Amino acid sequence: MSSLILKRPRYRSLRFCQTTCSNTHLLSPLASISETQIKSPYSSNSYNSLLFIPNQKILVSGFSSGLLESIKDPTWSHFSGPKHGQFSDADEKDKVLASGFVVLKRNVSGFASVLPPRGDKGLVYLRCSCSYSTQAAAELSTSDGLTVDGIVASNWTIFDESEGDWKSHAAAIAQSIQVIKRRMQWKKLTVRLELLAVQLDKPDLWDDPVNAGRISREHGSLVSKIKEVKAFEQQLLEHIDMIKLAREEGDAEMESESLKALLEMRRNSKEKELEALLSGEQDSCSCYIEVQAGAGGTESMDWAKMVIEMYKSWAQRRGYKVSLVDEMPGDIAGIKRATIKLEGEYAFGYAKAEVGVHRLVRISPFDSGKRRHTSFAAVAVIPILGDGSTRVQINESDLRIERFRSGGPGGQHANTTESAVRIVHIPTGITATSQNERSQHMNKASALEVLQSRLDQLEMTRQAQMNAQHTQSLTEISWGNQIRTYVLHPYRMVKDLRTNYEVSDPDSVLDGEIDGFILNYFSACLDKEDDYP
Amino acid sequence: MNLGLGRACLFSSCRPIFSASASLRTVKPQIPLFLRPPTHSASLLDVKKWHEWAKNLTSSVGSSFVEFDNGPDSSLLCRELNWLLEDALENHSSFHFPLSCERDGSDHDENVLLRTSLDDLYSLWKQRIEERRPFQYIVGCEHWRDLVLSVQEGVLIPRPETEKIIDLVGDIVSNNEELGQGIWADVGTGSGAIAIGIGRILGSHGRVLATDLSPVAVSVASFNVQRYGLQSVIEVRQGSLFEPLKDVEGELSGIVSNPPYIPSAHISGLQAEVGRHEPRIALDGGAGGMDFLLQLCNGAAAMLKPGGFFALETNGEEHCKFLIDHMQNNAARSFHNLNIVNDFAGMQRFVIGFRQ
């Protein structure tokens, strides 16, 4: 398709509308048209018109009715012209969709706001880099006013993907967009964005650079999240416009292309739904998973080992890089405690659903009396913050570094590959151990990394207490109560106590198939919040 | 060669590393496993079979080595086994994926690339468990500080305690620019560990002369120096103690050494990995263990320039105290700030001081 991709949010109220545009091209409809010297193809009485530029197709997927009235204003007179579909100068092969506000690039930054002419005839205000919040709240529509909510409300039948019905694709995608918005807690998000924008506008913001950095980072990340969904929505509407246009034009090639694009979007939308579950600030981070055996001796240490193995194979399946940081083996079997590191996108986002106490019921192989035992293992998940985040400063003098070594005279007498290091952060008493690297040096570095993440997490919790909005999600990350029960005897079942989701094959779960539990948990705790209209 | 000059003279019959005639020949260093090309291929299933076999062999050890001579227990050996796999496999991360492959049953004959043959892996792990051959010789390298150093039979495996010498030198050099721009000597360099550690601190500002009597050590140290691209900073010289350093007498900014310091009588009771496999000439310090330490102390005054620094690793408290006494009594006017420094385990390990 053409390089001219046109986006235009439809605004119910046009007193103040904004659109995205490239840094250097702040374009109002007026500007774009005059700049590109298009021969006034806008219809004055229909807002659904075609602009034509040689070798490019533009569909003006119009101004909303609100703007329509203002278009009738004489100052917009150069919008008068042939009705849509008239390609007087056009080569039939070259058509492109355009919408009210013309943007020359897809990846846009900076925002322009346009005050449509009302009292002041033809007066157009352009304002650069204003907040995105109004944009988020605005609703997008097709040229004939169809919105995502509208599509869902029309209850178009959703057929199988193989059925090439555009309405069915569109309905499926629209549903996904609603799910995505709900999961992202769209309303909260926009409120938060507005709040951040207000803070960003304060002149004394940078008096506290750390705080300012945090605010502008969060603002930036929210803006890009919202933008992404908006773009997806826009894409859907554009394709619908295209299909309608193609039908009117009888352009079968264009229709099938758009249909293909819709199908592609439909396939992507499921993935986007998943991603939307992970829209927290730290969700995309790598993380540590720690498992600690509960009371109950060897049986629960064996259980802790099974749990950590479950996470190892789950993580490997997901394609994360897994490394064992620290392991304290049990006296007879299993582990007392272990820490693994998961590196990869969204490791923390997924793994955080596993925080809590996991319970096992089985006939213990360590009990000669073959009695049924219940044991517990606690799971903690710690995000490894990226470089961009503010991390806690650690003073070298606050650390006590202990190295494990066997007794004896040491030095040349002993040859050991054991080089475990334990670091104690004296002011907080927080410790970290690493033993799986091949030199003390590397173990120290690795333990320091764990310590850093623990201190970061502590700091986040502290911050969260000051910021009520985030408290809810963060309390879920601390050690929680029992979340799941794994029964191997007298029947076989794994059941999540938070969602009641259950699986009758414990072996597959212990082999790392826990995505079902994770996704159900997210759906349950996010979808229940009636955030989306 | 006169008796006072070096480890080779105390060289015992247990491991004929070189003879007088061989010492003139350059020894070709072995390439550590992890640096070898992955030219061997084996089916994933066979590698897993080997891994299972090795794990079983390892767990049969339990704590018997610990009880016998304070050797490794099975959980440490298991960790070593994973490291061996890490070094031997071309793509180590692939090894943990096959779980899912087995399930769909399609990729049973998937091949993996190895840096040594599967047969070799069997015999290597047998050597580790049955002969107690040190893990570092098995894989041909030792992770020391942030370095990965090539090691092989005939060269002492650098100990974690010795890492401290680099920290000591780093502190000295950061407070005294002049010393950082001078010539340092690592006497009895072995794998070149200390020389490389110091060479990386000094950079192009200074120079390190690394000496060793053993041609194996000279060749391994040179290999390691090359691997870290420090040829312009570190020069490896063959010879005993200060003998190859006559041209810089009185000019050295620093002397560091981890000389053989185990009393001869203790050698037979050493942990099997050490006593049976590491070169005796790098361990045996004579009857009291101080033969070389005393020579180093006595020679240091002449070799160091005024203000020069020295650090020697010793067998422990007894050695440290004796050496400090010895220097205060015999060379009090040559040195100042004589001190004992503990190792990470809190044992008195190093004697340090400055030339007046």
From TrEMBL, chain A:
Residues 244-354 form the Peptide chain release factor domain. Keywords: Protein biosynthesis. One of its GO terms (molecular function) is translation release factor activity, codon specific. The keyword Protein biosynthesis applies. SMART domains: PCRF. Pfam families: PCRF, RF-1. GO terms for cellular component: cytoplasm. Belongs to the prokaryotic/mitochondrial release factor family. This is Peptide chain release factor PrfB2, chloroplastic. It comes from Turnera subulata.
UniProtKB/TrEMBL annotation, chain B:
Keywords: Methyltransferase, S-adenosyl-L-methionine, Transferase. GO terms for biological process: methylation. InterPro entries: DNA_methylase_N6_adenine_CS (IPR002052), HemK-like (IPR004556), RF_glutamine_MTase_cyano (IPR052663), SAM-dependent_MTases_sf (IPR029063), Small_mtfrase_dom (IPR007848). Residues 182-261 form the Methyltransferase small domain. GO terms for molecular function: nucleic acid binding; protein methyltransferase activity; S-adenosylmethionine-dependent methyltransferase activity. It comes from the Eukaryota. This is Methyltransferase small domain-containing protein. It comes from Turnera subulata. The lineage of its organism: Eukaryota, Viridiplantae, Streptophyta, Embryophyta, Tracheophyta.
